[in-house]
Amino acid sequence: MNNRLDRDFGEEIIEKKRKRQKFKLLKNYYRASSGKEKVIDLLLPFILILILISITSVKTEWSNIGFAKSILSSTDIIVNVMAILAGFNTASLSIIGTANMKMVSEDTTNKIIDYFSFAILFQLVILIIGIVLKFSSGYLLNIGNSITLNLNVIFLEYVLIIVGSIWYAAVISSILISIRSLPIISNIIKLMVKK
What is the pLDDT of residue 127? Predict the structure, then answer.
């Protein structure tokens, strides 16, 4: 019997599986990556960007609105780069899907697929945030101007430094994750050519 209650229950089960899948991708990425790779991919970009922005804020005349404008103006480039990287990783997944992976264990194949899926998800999240930032940049600058009048300027500077560091570190991390995927896809293509 296919009544509305069954259909709603089925949709609820599918929704729960989707939520679990997102966390599974993140968990499998962490499981498949070594400690060194996680540090290079995730922690090192944040530390380097934080140091770079902090030094810049000390050495130059700092302007909260100027820094916010520079973040928002770089969003065009970030959106384009993330779209290209997400496309590259999607194409890589299709290559993996068509490859004869009999020589590779099922566990390794699943880790490779989850790695590329995580990269695509990460890049698409950055892409969506970038698009939202681009469309709302005028409003954000107006809000920034009013916040600057009402908040401590030093506090706002620290908030902008941290938010800017997280944003740029996420972009750099995404690029590093894609760079790390190049040898994987290269080996899979070589495996396909041998057969």
Answer: 93
